[in-house]
């Protein structure tokens, strides 16, 4: 189970099995599968967003020309603090309203935020995220697409590993006569 679920989840599940809490163990595994599915959907959406601007579908039906940090955070499904952190790390550079100094986000910023959201789930190095975001800034969509496709392959591999781990967990439960 380690390759698909990691050490913590695997250990937690095995402790549950040892304690006779089989259903709780299976629900824990199910929750991890649901989270992986969300990662897959986010990566698929990111790949869709990386189509050239002229042929891309609308980034979000509620996206406006200029948005506040709260609006863009809601549309992207991330915390405003995450957006501020990404700005501090150099991943985003929103415009500023000259009247009040507030951040102003465009649909292109939203596109970047959606990309960063996906990458942070699948690629763990800030340097890699910066490379992809900067590629997007410099209109190197092909490079950004390739990295996103690599992330999707990683998600697919984790899914297969998780399914193999679930198979082994069921075998263990059958051997212990818990099923």
Structure description:
The chain has 179 residues and is an all-alpha fold. 70% of the residues lie in helices and 2% in strands. Strands 1-2 form a two-stranded antiparallel ribbon. β1 (95-96) and β2 (103-104) form a beta hairpin. α1 (2-18) packs parallel to α7 (141-175). The chain is elongated. The model is unreliable at 53-57 (pLDDT under 50).
Q: Overall mean pLDDT score?
A: 86
Say how many strands there are: 2
For the record, the CATH architecture stands as: Orthogonal Bundle
Number of helices: 7
What is the percent of helical residues? 55-70%
Order of helices and strands: HHHHEEHHH
Distance between the termini: 19 Å
In the CATH hierarchy, the third-tier topology is known as Multidrug-efflux Transporter Regulator, Chain: A, Domain 2
| Approximate strand percentage | under 5%
Shape: elongated
Number of domains: 1
Q: Structural class per helix/strand content?
A: mainly alpha
- Low confidence ranges: 53-57
**Strand order, largest beta sheet:** 1-2
Could you describe the largest sheet, including whether it forms a barrel? 2 strands, antiparallel
Radius of gyration: 20 Å
Identify the CATH class.
Answer: Mainly Alpha
List the helices and strands and how they pair.
Elements: H1 2-18, H2 22-49, H3 69-76, H4 80-88, E1 95-96, E2 103-104, H5 107-122, H6 126-137, H7 141-175
Antiparallel strand pairs: 1-2
Helix pairs in contact: 1-2, 1-7, 2-5, 2-7, 3-5, 5-6, 6-7
